[in-house]
Specification:
By secondary structure, the chain is α/β, with parallel strands linked by helices. The chain contains 13 helices and 14 strands. The strands form two sheets. The chain has an eight-stranded mixed sheet, with helices on both faces. A six-stranded parallel sheet has the order 11-10-9-12-13-14, sandwiched between helices.
Length: 371
């Protein structure tokens, strides 16, 4: 079986959840004798081998603009894939919804992973939000299979677009602490800090969590890991708070994945404020690395944490964050118990091998229906 994958920056390039997802998936697909081709953004790769780790690579140029680079790349990649001998085209990102028309015209079996509620994210306003919602609706019209990574997202697609979808979650890799000394770079001690990890964008609610923590009585630090590759008022305003509250530590982007793992391992509590989307990769990292978790009260976060089994919740306001931090700051034994059981949250649903088997099932069903 031959599968072409479109919609990411490429392989083995790892930048975001999508690229991590593709890396975990394709390497397992190859081991199961699936012939995989990944379409890559040509400008991101100085070296352009035709194959890496058994994964075939095609480099397609695009015009580098914030809004259009992925769409242009996907259009040409879809056309190239439809003219190839591929059996199945697998697309990620709901922005690529309209391009299902191309595979429909060429009668190529297709599946799309539509991810989250992009049209609700604050960064997409006006035309951007309208496009994402329209593109998501188009995906439900043109693709043979819609894949969501959460049961709640499946419900939303049924309600909004009257289209059912396969639920195949994102995965997590269980890890244990190996080099706790790595956190010393930021002057930290095990259990001496709360942790936030992710992208520095409004819909991750860092402002609510940071201000809520600042109002708390905790003597621990709050470590914020992540950044954005541009200057904006939102991130600059929050970073400036470290000048008036020495409990705040902004590390910026940490590229050493071992160091990120140790920050999770050794945090007193991980704080998760992601609001939109389905199964969040950072939440699964927190579970995989043995973190105690407090999270924004959303259906998506509750689904991953199995309600109160693996986490506690705050509402989207500073007072709620403050009250939960003050409460859990004094409950050391409870936190240790949460840390000791969190890896159990990486159930079969979030196991990469099981996830790969589910994708193979979908691809095989598509090829059978296509004859």
């Amino acid at each position: 079986m031959r599968v072409s994958i479109i919609g990411t920056r490429g392989y083995p390039y790892v930048y975001s959840g999508y690229e991590t997802f593709i890396k975990e998936l394709v390497e397992r697909l190859v081991k199961k004798n699936v012939e995989v081709t990944v379409y890559c953004h040509r400008n991101l790769f100085k070296d352009r081998p035709k194959e890496v780790n058994g994964v075939k690579l095609v480099y397609i140029p695009t015009i580098e603009t914030k809004s259009l680079s992925q769409l242009i790349h996907s259009f040409f990649s879809m056309t190239h894939a439809c003219l190839s001998k591929t059996d199945v085209v697998f697309v990620v990102n709901s922005a690529n919804g309209p391009f299902g028309l191309i595979t429909r015209l060429f009668r190529k079996p297709t599946a799309i992973n539509v991810d989250g509620l992009e049209w609700l994210r604050p960064k997409w306003k006006g035309l951007g939000a309208s496009y994402f919602k329209w593109a998501s609706r188009q995906a439900t019209k043109w693709y043979d299979v819609i894949i969501n990574d959460a049961d709640e997202m499946r419900r939303i697609y049924l309600e909004l677009f009257n289209r059912d979808s396969e639920v195949i979650a994102y995965g997590g890799n269980i890890k244990y602490s190996k080099s706790p000394e790595l956190i010393e770079e930021w002057g930290l001690e095990p259990g001496g800090y709360y942790l936030i990890v992710g992208r520095f964008i409004p819909d991750n609610n860092w402002g609510v969590m940071i201000e809520g923590f600042r109002k708390s009585n905790s003597k621990r630090k709050l470590v914020i890991v992540g950044d954005v590759p541009y200057q904006d008022e939102y991130s600059s305003k929050l970073k400036a708070l470290s000048q008036i509250d020495d409990r705040l530590i902004f590390t910026g982007l940490v590229r050493n994945r071992d160091a990120v793992a140790e920050l999770f391992h050794n945090a007193y509590v991980y704080m998760h404020g992601h609001e939109f989307g389905g199964t969040n990769p950072t939440m699964l990292e927190a579970l995989s690395f043995g973190s105690a978790i407090i999270a924004l009260n959303t259906p998506f976060n509750r689904e991953v944490l199995q309600n109160e089994k693996y986490g506690l919740y705050f509402e989207k306001n500073e007072t709620s964050v403050q009250q939960l931090v003050d409460k859990i700051d004094a409950e050391f034994e409870r936190v240790q118990k949460m840390k000791s059981t969190s890896r159990e949250g990486i159930t079969e649903k979030y196991n990469w091998d099981s996830i790969t088997d589910n994708y193979i099932r979908v691809f095989e069903d598509l090829t059978k229906k296509a004859g």
